[in-house]
Amino acid sequence: MTATQQVVFPTEGKHLLEITREGPLFIMTMVDKENRFTPVMCKAICDALDHVAEVVDKEELTEAALMTRGQDKFYSNGLDMEKAFSVPGFTDHTFMPMLNKILLFGIPTIACLNGHAFAGGCLMAMAHDYRVMRSDRGFMCMNEIDLPSPLPAGMSALLRYKMHPHVYRSCVLEAKRFSAKEALASHLVDAIAEGVEGTVELGKQVALKIAPKTKAGACYGMIKEDMYPEISERLMMNAKL
Amino acid sequence: MTATQLVVFPTEGKHLLEITREGPLFIMTMVDKENRFSPEMCKAICDALDHVAEVVDKEELTEAALMTRGQDKFYSNGLDMERAFSVPGFTDHTFMPMLNKILLFGIPTIACLNGHAFAGGCLMAMAHDYRVMRSDRGFMCMNEIDLPSPLPAGMSALLRYKMHPHVYRSCVLEAKRFNAKEALASHLVDAIAEGVEGTVELGKQVALKIAPKAKSGVFYGMIKEDMYPEISERLMMNAQAKL
User: Fold this and answer.
1) Contact residues, chain B to chain A, C-beta under 8 Å
2) What is the pLDDT of residues A183-227, one digit of tens each?
3) pTM
4) Minimal-distance CA residue of chain A relative to B160
5) Nearest to B219 among A149, A156, A165 (CB)
6) Membrane spanning segments where (chain B) (predicted)?
7) The complex's ipTM?
């Protein structure tokens, strides 16, 4: 895809994602307001990831990174409760495998938290290799305990193996709302900046810095598989492929 | 149980635990000096936990928390070596399942370290959701390596999944004695205060703050089961009787 080309997913009907390219950066913008996860959204994300992987492969890129972002106030507010649970097994067969696909993606991934990342949105962010966050507005939060709702083994593992134990404890048992400063201090995010544009610029800087690791080729994804086996096996535990 | 009622365990003979209640707080005080873990002590703790769970259930409490504490110089000094090992399989069948019961308890748990938490006592503290510690006296320590004694898989896992790796390494391989300041800096405890009374008050504050999470009902315990599967499966690995 060229720098001016925009690719959307789904390809027909109302699009939920826009993929743009800036040199080695592939930017996936979720454009569905609260960017809640439905069967259609999850499929769009997986198709978008496949598309990016194809381009990286076809052009034999030695520098590449994927940055995801939302718009305005939301990165993602989590599962669309109504749509998600109208399909039996959505979490096991669709949502968690989508998280696993991001987790093990074959090039560096950067989540640009332009706004709130709640529940499923927080999980999606944590599935990335890196995170930047807007410092003046927005929270990261796992609020299942307040709904109340269970936190399935795969989702819990994704947090457990990426967070310090005491942070994980407070995140899950308190539904703690992490501001950008707290997220930075707790090592949930790698850097913070003011405003949406500032955060997007910061995300691109982080992405550009890590993009050369794509030179590792197939080894990048392989290394990640061996980094996160405990997460991956639990995310995929009940997936029917 | 009412606020004035004191419930003791065991119910007959010399009691080792006293349960009191202050509103949403259930306070379990270990009153056996060094509070060493014997078969009787472990059963008393499990019975006490069952009692608290029953009251929470019966009164349909939407705010509740359990705070455990010792008296004077000791939270707990660990296993009663003589009594514990006079019973074959004590660790596998009794002690580790007791730790698991605390680990997965269905309401928030706070360990109030009024004094030393050594070996089994340190493990009991780490099994709780939160810990406060007295700042002017007392240590947390895993001294197995100095005895020397093994540190079975379940116990090691309890530390490993609740501590930063470098803290875990020093805790277990050095028998490092963590004073309250070090424990706080290492995130082994959540807050510290001076004196026994100060620490108890702090523990109650922490407990009161987290007690509303009991509103999640059965989900609290379910969420904890999915938080600590690696610990739980190893604690229960060789248990024949689930308490």
Assistant:
1) 108, 129, 161-164, 187, 190, 210, 213, 215-217, 219-220, 222-224, 226-227, 229-230
2) 999 999 999 999 999 999 999 999 999 999 999 999 999 999 999
3) 0.95
4) A165
5) A149
6) 102-127
7) 0.94
